[in-house]
# Entry
Amino acid sequence: MNQLFLLASRPDGVPEPANFQLVEAPVPELAEGQVLLENHYLSVDPYMRGRISTAKSYAKPVELGEVMTGTGVGRVAASRHERFVAGDIAVGLTGWQRYAVVDGSQLRKFDAALVPISTALGVLGMPGLTAYFGLTDVCAARPGETVMVSGAAGAVGSYVGQMARILGCRVVGSAGGPEKVRHVLEDLGFEGAFDYKGTSDLNGVLKGLCPNGIDCYFDNTGGAVTDAVFRRINTGARIAICGQIASYNAVAEDYGPRIFRTLLVKQARVQGFLVNQYKDRYREAYPKIGEWLRSGSLTYRETIVEGFEKMPEAFIGLFSGQNLGKMLVKVV
Amino acid sequence: MNQLFLLASRPDGVPEPANFQLVEAPVPELAEGQVLLENHYLSVDPYMRGRISTAKSYAKPVELGEVMTGTGVGRVAASRHERFVAGDIAVGLTGWQRYAVVDGSQLRKFDAALVPISTALGVLGMPGLTAYFGLTDVCAARPGETVMVSGAAGAVGSYVGQMARILGCRVVGSAGGPEKVRHVLEDLGFEGAFDYKGTSDLNGVLKGLCPNGIDCYFDNTGGAVTDAVFRRINTGARIAICGQIASYNAVAEDYGPRIFRTLLVKQARVQGFLVNQYKDRYREAYPKIGEWLRSGSLTYRETIVEGFEKMPEAFIGLFSGQNLGKMLVKVV
# Structure
């Protein structure tokens, strides 16, 4: 029997375990072109909050009673697709289930010879690509510039900061709590970092950490940190909006300082982006990220929750910052 | 004797006539390389509000007791610069004065054979270039797209809307009052327009006028119109922030709905710009604008206040929307 999580109800604010229902079902027969994947790791990501809401977004929401959406990596258990044989390691949009029947054309083979397969969901997966294109294309960061990253201890943020350092930028980040700040400074090599939860004077802290202003801002969180960053941006600044986790669970409209006057005075640009805008260029990113991993200049952390039944718990933990680096569930 | 306006005090909120002091002074002798320009028209523009404030901006503020900054066009009365002779028509940053001594290298000769010289301050000057580059480069408007313009009856807005129409876009605009709305629809050929002052349901009005959403937004005003536009933008929308006249006189911080989540969901871009970012490309714009004027596809209006002594009045009138098209002072 397979196990899977259905969307049982829509959250009103922060998601709760009861929004997801664990059910058992037989594994379907494979049709021609399909592959049966046995998930080893499943990803939980902030973007999933949008998929379980009916608010307008870039993708249609998961319907009540449908399998919860998400990406998994694992071993091919059976294949009726010419590119896959049993035993291959592959990654794809499997949903929250132990076994998934996926169209082979939607599955990517993953070379796990040199790296753990879990990286297919992190630094060598969607979050790594998001960091790479957001930093190099949306922010268009240049050597010597100051790059600020919110959510710096999360998956995307931790990659962005390190990639910016590799590109010769001066990197500053925000994170939630002293242990994350320590990690960002000592393990990831940021030049500056601050605990947004423990700071009452965000403007003062940013001024101290970014004495020459901010040229690029990679925003994973939104909220008060983002408002403060706009007070420190330089002429010609580029701001990439990648995530707004601070407001994903908001029940009222989100108000704050209007940024238009600042954009005008600073001739600055703010751009929201999704990684799949870059799908024609993924091939250029993988070898670069791989090279940085091999050389040791890029490292990664994972927060691994063990047990398929803990999927909802792991997902909900994202919103209180339970993760250092990539949050994953190991399907045991 | 020359007459000139000095900045006497800084406004707190909306500027008042007493912020400017009319004084008389002898016309200085010309040094080598200088030109004496007798102004025929002087421009008043919303951007000048920023120059008389001490708030951080892209240019240093006018100091108290200094000549008020601004552009004028007129006749060369005397020249010690090789490119100019008495009788030439020229335009430059003269400040608010009847006679200005200007470095010849900072003056642009203006060909008034086919067009009135006042156009050097409007459609064939800074506002025209602002419209052209903001629309074609910052917004990157494409045929068939819906372009929304705020301040559509003002100088820049009226050019933007007509240029967008010429480029094959569907154009909608906002303006203050029924007469301006009539002008925008009947004289300028917008497909839709609304009176933002007479509208309580901006969201509903925009929905009706832009049934297919908004692809490009050229913002001259900011305020509630801009907030409503963000609720209607399409995926991949481009927003050019050119002016924020609604908040130039604000004394408190400007609050409104945060736009970051919308930018993310819509993969949209907002960019503040100044026309002088494009100074290396002015030459490509002039012939196009001139061609549109000659063919009659682009028209312009001017609101001309007569009398040099009325400079402050004309300037202050911008903030209550006294102008249709370009606001000018005729130096008589």
Summary: Chain A touches chain B through 36 residues (CB under 8 Å). The first strand of chain A starts at residue 2 and ends at 7. The mean pLDDT of chain A is 96. The domain at 2-122+301-330 of chain A is CATH 3.90.180.10 (Quinone Oxidoreductase; Chain A, domain 1).
